[in-house]
Amino acid sequence: MSGEQRGSVEEQQKGMKAPLLPVQDSASHSSNQQVMTLKSFLTLKNLYIILGPLLSLLICLLVKLKDAPASSVKMLAVIAWVFAWWVTEAVPLPVTSLCPLFLFPLFGIGSADSVAHSYMDDVITLVLGSFILALAVERYNVHRRLALNVTLLFCGDPLNPAMLLMGLCATTFFVSMWLHNVAAAVMMMPVATGILQRLPPPSEQSEAVNKFSRAVVLTVVYATPIGGISTLTGTGVNLILIGMWKSLVPGAKPISFSTWFFYGFPVAAVLLIAFWCIMCSLYVQKGSARALSAYLEKAHLRRDLEALGPMSFAEKMVLSVFGVSVRLNSNSNSLILFTKALI
């Protein structure tokens, strides 16, 4: 065997004897591991998680309410726990919203069965059904077809930005009359963005186009709660008021859908017109029609609408469900049963 071959064999043997990983002292390794474990535990998020139970424990031990039932202190402790997690977002907000489901039985405030029934209250069922309907509208592109039709109907020839805002106000107002405020905003915001997508990016917009873009978004934001005033089902606050009216004044005549509508609709209509006038005075400039006409021409809008093709079966079914929900709004009991069937 030559000298070179003998040297290579010795190097291979040394390499086989060498450890694959660096050797550390076992004591130093365990101490480093403990420090790393402690650091990974003492994070800000974990401290926020501990904060909720800690506040609850301190309230139960230190707070004494005179002339109040024993469950009052426990209820205050639960509120502190949920509030701490809600503000700090120590856990996801949906998890925080479900905390009473296990905290009430844990503190002896209420049974799990009664708390679970509260989570499926009629008002919550109605709101959940509205959300499902709004998601279906967005899922099957009904909002894009609605945006193009609203723009075509109200933009005018030549283009009139004020009338376009009025059309968006009226459409949002009408949808919000029959759906919950948040669900109506979820449904109508894609309609607003569908209009904004036809405009150039913000960095390339003129002052008139930029102001109109902000007006489109604000129209959906503010016209939604205005429309919710019109009907009982327009917002959850109206339904809560009806529930309080029944419990606080049991002998009084109940507030029906028609009674509320004849009171709320005129007020909401006046507010909507006032809001539209304010938006036009603040965000619609004199030269905005000329600046927007290049992006919102009727010929382009008709071409985009034709590109969508005929309405699909899914779109027709979504609109049918929406029409049925509008029809059943005159009977609140039927509407609640219908929204439960949606879920």
UniProtKB/TrEMBL annotation:
Transmembrane segments: 46-63, 70-87, 93-111, 123-142, 162-195, 216-240, 260-284
Annotated compartments: Membrane
Statement: the UniProt record of this protein carries the keyword Transferase: no
A cellular component term, taken from the record's GO annotations: plasma membrane
Keyword Transmembrane helix listed: yes
Membrane topology label: Multi-pass membrane protein
Protein's recorded name: Tonoplast dicarboxylate transporter
Keywords: Membrane, Transmembrane, Transmembrane helix
One Pfam family hit: Na_sulph_symp
Recorded superkingdom: Eukaryota
InterPro entries reported for this sequence: SLC13A/DASS (IPR001898)
Annotated GO MF terms: malate transmembrane transporter activity
